[in-house]
Amino acid sequence: MTKSLEIAGSKTETAMDSSRCQWCRSPISQRSGAGRPRRFCSQSCRQWDWVARQRATELALSEDELVIARKELDALRDQVYVLRCAIADVEADLDPSVDPTTQDFKAALKWLLQAAKPLAQDQLHPSPSRAA
Fold first, then answer.
1. Which residues contact 79 (CB under 8 A, 6 or more apart)?
2. Helix (H) or strand (E) holding 94
3. Helices assigned H by DSSP within the chain
């Protein structure tokens, strides 16, 4: 299912949604030829999506609501905070009035990557103990 945006009275599909797994948001390649477009990158993502929809029905959640453990939410917020701090540090370190060197740029990039990788690698999946 692709999401559409209302822009000046016309609907346009976002290409980003049609080329990403509906569960984990990983990029997926579409096959050419006949058949429905792929919605999931793997069978496990398809299964987790089904489990999530079943649990949402049981809990009477709308499509826009979700349940997340406090521990997971806190960890996600911590990672976002670290990234926010890294951005602020890099902006201060690369102030044009200081005339940063190539070494400064490399150090800033290394710090940004170090702060961003945990967020990029983290994938939220239902806890197997609560899925059933």
1. 118, 119, 122
2. none
3. 15-18, 43-58, 70-93, 102-121, 128-131
| pLDDT, tens digit (0-9, with 9 covering 90-100), for 34-83 | 888 889 999 999 998 898 889 889 989 888 887 888 998 898 899 999 99
Nearest to 24 by CA among 38, 3, 44: 44
- Residue 45: CB atoms within 10 A of its CB come to 20
Inside any domain, residue 26: yes
Amino acid at 95: D
**What range defines the domain where residue 117 resides?**
68-122
Q: How many domains does the chain have?
A: 2
Q: Of 47, 54, 43, 117, which is closest to residue 82 (Cα–Cα)? A: 117
Q: Are residues 26 and 57 in the same domain?
A: yes
**Could you read off the pLDDT of 100-122 as tens digits, one per residue?**
888 888 999 999 999 999 888 87
128 lies in some domain: no
pTM across the whole model: 0.56
The two three-digit tokens of residue 10, written as one number: 């016309």
Spatial neighbors of 2 by CB under 8 A, at least 6 apart, are 13, 14, 17, 18
